Amino acid sequence: MGLKVHNVEIFQTNIKDSNNAARLKKELSILYPYSKINFDLEDCDRILRIETHYKINTKQIIALGHHLGVLIKLLEDEKLL
Length: 81
Fold this sequence. Notes:
Layout (H helix, E strand, L loop, with lengths): L6 E7 L4 H14 L4 E5 L6 E6 L5 H10 L4 E3 L2 H4 L1
Antiparallel strand pairs: 1-3, 1-4, 2-3
């Protein structure tokens, strides 16, 4: 039985390597346990994608990134098309 996804958010980041991605993923996993959190560092926007059954607090995620020295920006729907 898989995770029942209620919320999905996609963010642009400035993460350039898998070590920094893993560090951010570890912190996000504390905030959003049992969630799918992944990165696409090959994409020009260095995508962070979060799928969860929790309500996603985008401001909290952006602030966490700032605390870790990572730029995180919510991608708007029109950018995703």
